[in-house]
Amino acid sequence: MLISLTQSFLHYLVEILPALAIGFLLSGIIHEFIPESIVSKYLSSQGVKPIFLLTLIGIFLPICCFGTLPLAVAFYKKGIKLGPILAFLVATPATSISAPLVTYRLFGITFTIYIFAAVIVMGLLIGMIGNLIIYKPKSEPAEENCPHCRQSEDKCGCHSGTGNRIKSILKFAFIDMPKEIGLLTLVGILLAAIVSTFTPIGVFIRQFLSGGFSYVFALIFGIVMYFCSTSSPPFVHAMIKQGMPAGAGMVLLLIGPITSYATILVVSKKFGIKVMLIYLSVISVVGLAVGCLFSLIP
Length: 298
What we know:
Layout: H1 2-33, H2 36-43, H3 48-60, H4 65-77, H5 82-94, H6 99-107, H7 109-132, H8 162-198, H9 201-208, H10 213-224, H11 232-241, H12 246-258, H13 261-271, H14 273-295
Helix pairs in contact: 1-4, 1-8, 3-5, 3-7, 4-5, 4-13, 5-7, 5-12, 6-7, 7-14, 8-13, 10-12, 11-12, 12-14, 13-14
């Protein structure tokens, strides 16, 4: 059993590390090149516009929920509000450039268009609700000196020259960000591996998942397990062929990539338990509603 757990953990690690590395690198680029003026002008307001923009950005980024976390933290450090960040955390892992192609090959055009539209609606909704949440932001330490060389900004040379900028990007991406959320991410991967190893999912599916209970199961299973938006469609397709309703499969494809233990832990750390519970509740309710509505389509 310990060998199975180790194999499951390594499997998740191999699958996740490339996307996580991309997410860290993009967070370093954002930190280095996106000026505060751009953030203040386009992404830090309370309206629907920044929510919509980050939802669209998230849809086309080819990273999973683990790779999304460092980007979300980088956006938060830039001063972006809670609503757009929550929308980004929903839209980015739920779809990508490759996910609709895989989904189309397995489920057809109707299923693909429906889930793509559902992701946009879910992102906008959680973003607008996030802007209404009253919470106490976790204070970020003010840095009067450059975080790289610890000199005053007028004497700092870290951001002049291509070499210095690359060093700044890499330091933020692969030193600062892993220190901040690296341990939480590893804990999340380990928890997913434990659930995958010790839960008799296969027997349960064959015996109980041909009726209405499959929707509740898909919701719970999607929350406690990690699914990539590109790699999960074949798994869900197999479950549907074995008798699971297509609407329940839709719930699993939506909830699985959006939630992970690492996401829950990072959202709790950065925004508090209250925000995390609202985030999960909205995702759960909307995911179930989307799946049930899809089951009514002839």
